[in-house]
Amino acid sequence: MENQTRFDLNAAVENWRNELAAQPNLASDDRSELETHLRDAIAGFQQRGLNDEESFWLARKRVGQPPQLGEEFVKADPAKVWRERIFWAAIILLAIRLWSGILSIAWAIFQTTVTTPYFLNKYHSVSPFPDWVRFYLPVPSNIDLYALLFSPSSRIVFNFLSLLPVIGIAWLLSRGRLSKGFSWMQFFFQSRRRFLFISTTLFSFYILLLANSLLRYETQSDGLSLSFVIFANFMSLLYPAILIALIAWLMPTQNRKAPKRA
Amino acid sequence: MLTKDLVAASSKPLLLSILAGGESYGYEIIQKVRELSGGQIEWSDGMLYPVLHRLERDGLIDSEWKEADTGRERKYYFISSDGRKALKTERQQWLAVHNSLCKLWKIKPGSI
After folding, report:
1. Quick check: pTM over 0.90?
2. Is the pLDDT of residue A187 over 80?
3. Which of A133-142, A212-221, B1-10, B29-38 has the highest mean pLDDT?
4. Nearest to B87 by CA among B13, B18, B36
5. What is the pLDDT of residue A250?
6. Which of A1, A34, A91, B21 has a CA-to-CA distance to A172 between 20 and 30 Å?
7. Disruptive mutation site among B64, B70, B76, B82 for chain A (greatest number of A CBs within 10 Å)
8. Of A18-27, A171-180, B37-46, where does the model show the most confidence?
9. What is the DSSP letter of A255?
10. A 22-41: CB under 8 A from B
11. pLDDT greater than 90 at residue B16
12. What does B34-85 look like in DSSP terms, one character per residue?
């Protein structure tokens, strides 16, 4: 008689993969290698006429218990997991840096084009809402709104909110959930040379922009000496530069080698 | 069945010899070893990879993720030039042991 509950092979493999992912000693590369092995073993048993469920359990037994696998793998290369962790940490820090840079530029543009002209406009100096609305509803006046927008506490809230997407994407990526939507990212990370080329190009472009703005700084000097401003700006470049170097150095090696055919 | 020590010691020449015959991946290697030894050498599947990774770290083999005919990606291993050199010395050493034992047991080398 057939089983009442049908065995779902894909769900079983998925479960097994989650079990592997819970092992702190297995790098993601090791996990995918073990998964292809499991799938090969399952296919092998299926070819010998076993059903899905039997094939899965036999293959699982063959591959071994996840905790033991973790122990054995970490012996072969104890630093591998940490290399991977630091690699991702550097990517996340760099992404946060880039994102906050983009946001601060966007915020500056927004301020100069929208909010500042709006608040400077004397027709709007009381409230954006007509009198009859303000009569019935306690809407904030423009002065209140301005204070709210530019208060230190709202700054903290904006900063926190602006980091949420970065944290969310990083978390999803580290879980392998976004592997399809983010396959284009592989373009940057396919080879160390390409990554370094793209990042140094963007970086030098940024330095040029910075140098340009520093040249203009001289004309509207406000107390700080120019050499100090140049020093401070270029010191702030050190941080992303270190991150880029770290990422390039720790980049997973498996896709870099040109295949040698025997 | 081989003892644990012997399995550990023989894995390096076995892996290098298999890969010297062409690139391969974990599952295929295990099948081959089982087949070659007539079931005498039984490697546990999950333990093979740490050995492969160690050889890779020593520069004796290289690896690459490639799409297999099933459409899924597989990690293929292939031997490096350092690996071929290492295989040569391994071969000399194992044959030295083998020949000495054969002489002691008064059997011709090659006939088991």
Report:
1. no
2. no
3. B29-38
4. B13
5. 83
6. A34
7. B64
8. A18-27
9. T
10. 29-30, 32-34, 36-37, 39-41
11. yes
12. HHHTTTSS---HHHHHHHHHHHHHTTSEEEEEEE-TTSSEEEEEEE-HHHHH
How many C-alpha atoms does A58 have within 13 Å on its Cβ side? 15
Distance CA(B79)–CA(A260), nearest Å, equals 9
DSSP secondary structure code for residue A97 in this structure = H
Token digits of residue A226? 């120019």
Q: Which residue in the block uniquely carries the two structure tokens 């991150």?
A: A243
| 3-state secondary structure at position B24 | strand
Interface with chain A: mutation pick from B44, B69, B77, B87, highest number of A CBs within 10 Å: B44
B65 neighbors A33 (Cβ within 8 angstroms)? no
Asked if A26 and A20 count as a contact pair (C-beta separation under 8 A), the reply is yes
Q: What is the ipTM of this complex?
A: 0.84
Question: Which of these ranges, A92-106, A115-129, B30-44, B96-110, has the smallest mean pLDDT?
Answer: A115-129
